[in-house]
């Protein structure tokens, strides 16, 4: 059985630099065999001559990467790539999918949870969101742009050279309030160390909170954004039945508002950590490694959500301790 192909979802508002980054991926001599799915709504096509009447067009480029331009639904394109890979027509071992500038990355991410065959052949590695430093204030006035940041495992800030330090620092603070988990990196004209994009393991079920137990600190400020991070912590062991009821109720009432969430939990009577994470109403959980002897057993849950009733959730979480 071959290993699943890691998938990176590239998100970001119009003009943030997704196409410049994709052009770098498709033309740089990095020695990796990357397939890129680009949809026809992007702000500037990579290879406009590829666009025609075919619903899916695939082309192998000089550096061995594969460019796939789609005019159809994503699932069909994913299966077509697998078919051509299995037939030996193309070769790739990683996949990058570009979302449109106005798109919510959630449906793209959910594709890899819902379809069983795709789940076996592809492995969702991470969601990367580009942020345009020069126009962030305008973009972030729209909830969809905030949501793109909320879904991210990594935030790449473009056009840093067009803003002063104070503007960049204020933007970094704002991004941190929206998403406490995602590291912020600067990307210059589409060029970035590919280690920042690939093997992010943002969807791994393990005790690493994606920089999480040392979540980026937030300076107190009045929030002007609907999307924000909520971090819950307790050193009391949690009752697993109460936890299950708490999560079920939260997902039932607010599942569509929970963009990303992850937890590493100490369960009463259990020596192993319980880890869970999800996107909207889709989530998974598993037992991880044992707590080390003498280690402080702290439960941490991180929610990145749209307009959650924070006080109610904190109160419910406080009742889970044994």
From TrEMBL:
It holds the Pfam family cobW. Its EC number is 3.6.5.-. Coiled coil: none annotated. The keyword rRNA-binding does not apply. It is an enzyme of class 3 (hydrolase). SMART domains: CobW_C. Keywords: Chaperone, Hydrolase, Nucleotide-binding. Residues 227-321 form the CobW C-terminal domain. It catalyses: GTP + H2O = GDP + phosphate + H(+). GO terms for molecular function: hydrolase activity. NCBIfam families: PRK11537.1. Belongs to the SIMIBI class G3E GTPase family. ZNG1 subfamily. Zinc chaperone that directly transfers zinc cofactor to target proteins, thereby activating them. Zinc is transferred from the CXCC motif in the GTPase domain to the zinc binding site in target proteins in a process requiring GTP hydrolysis. This is GTPase.
């Amino acid at each position: 059985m071959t290993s699943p192909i890691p998938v990176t979802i590239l998100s970001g508002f119009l003009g943030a630099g997704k196409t410049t980054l994709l052009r770098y991926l498709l033309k740089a001599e990095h020695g990796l065999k990357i397939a890129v799915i680009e949809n026809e709504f992007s702000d500037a096509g990579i290879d406009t001559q590829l666009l025609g009447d075919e619903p899916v067009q695939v082309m192998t480029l000089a550096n061995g990467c594969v460019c796939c331009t789609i005019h159809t639904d994503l699932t069909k394109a994913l299966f077509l790539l697998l078919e051509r890979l299995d037939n030996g027509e193309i070769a790739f071992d990683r996949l990058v999918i570009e979302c449109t500038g106005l798109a919510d990355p959630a449906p793209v991410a959910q594709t890899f949870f819902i379809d069983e065959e795709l789940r076996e052949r592809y492995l969702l590695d991470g969601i990367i969101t580009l942020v345009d430093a020069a126009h962030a204030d305008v973009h972030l006035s729209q909830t969809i742009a905030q949501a793109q940041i909320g879904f991210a495992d990594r935030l790449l800030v473009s056009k840093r050279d067009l803003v002063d330090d104070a503007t960049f620092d204020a933007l970094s603070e704002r991004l941190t309030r929206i998403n406490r988990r995602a590291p912020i990196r600067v990307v210059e004209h589409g060029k970035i160390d590919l280690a920042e994009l690939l093997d992010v393991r943002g969807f791994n079920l393990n005790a690493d909170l994606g920089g999480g137990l040392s979540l980026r600190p937030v300076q107190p400020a009045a929030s002007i954004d609907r999307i924000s991070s909520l971090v819950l912590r307790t050193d009391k062991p949690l009752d697993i039945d109460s936890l299950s009821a708490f999560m079920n109720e939260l997902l039932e009432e607010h599942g569509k508002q929970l963009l990303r969430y992850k937890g590493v939990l100490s369960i009463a009577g259990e020596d192993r950590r319980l880890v869970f994470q999800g996107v909207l109403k889709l989530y998974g959980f598993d037992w991880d490694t044992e707590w080390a002897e003498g280690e402080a057993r702290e439960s941490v849950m991180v929610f990145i959500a749209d307009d959650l009733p924070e006080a109610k959730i904190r109160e419910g979480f406080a009742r889970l301790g044994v």
